[in-house]
Amino acid sequence: MNKPNILVVEDDAPVRNLITTTLKAHDYKYITAKNGASAILEASSHNPDIVLLDLGLPDMDGVEIIRKVRGWSSVPIIIVSARSEDQDKVEALDAGADDYLTKPFSIDEFLARLRVALRR
Questions:
Q1: Whose CA, among 42, 57, 70, 113, lies 20 to 30 Å from 89?
Q2: Residue 99 has what DSSP assignment?
Q3: What does the alpha-carbon distance between residue 101 and residue 106 come to, in Å, rounded to a whole number?
Q4: What is the pLDDT of residues 67-88, one digit of tens each?
Q5: Which ranges of 9-85 would DSSP assign to H, the alpha helix?
Q6: Distance, CA of 17 to CA of 38 (rounded, Å)
Q7: pTM of the full predicted structure?
């Protein structure tokens, strides 16, 4: 069975390292992007099985990335963001995100949400 490939879009190095270390420990393959432009490039060129997307990126808002990716892909997108207001969650989900995980999060919940997305 092929190991799922996950695109991690996160500009905060400690959070990105936590996520990638967790993915590696659980036999997921991953690629990373530190901003929106590279996220779109990586998503289009690597065709990931899941996108983990932070909303607060240095060059563009994550909701804009969701809309761009949704123009050509139905890849599951899980938001991993410190934004916890209902308005932010609703906007991201309405734009096409499949799930929303608020930072800080537990590793167990994070992994469970990945498994759910992969089952779809």
A1: 42
A2: E
A3: 10
A4: 999 999 999 999 999 999 999 9
A5: 13-25, 36-46, 62-70
A6: 17
A7: 0.95
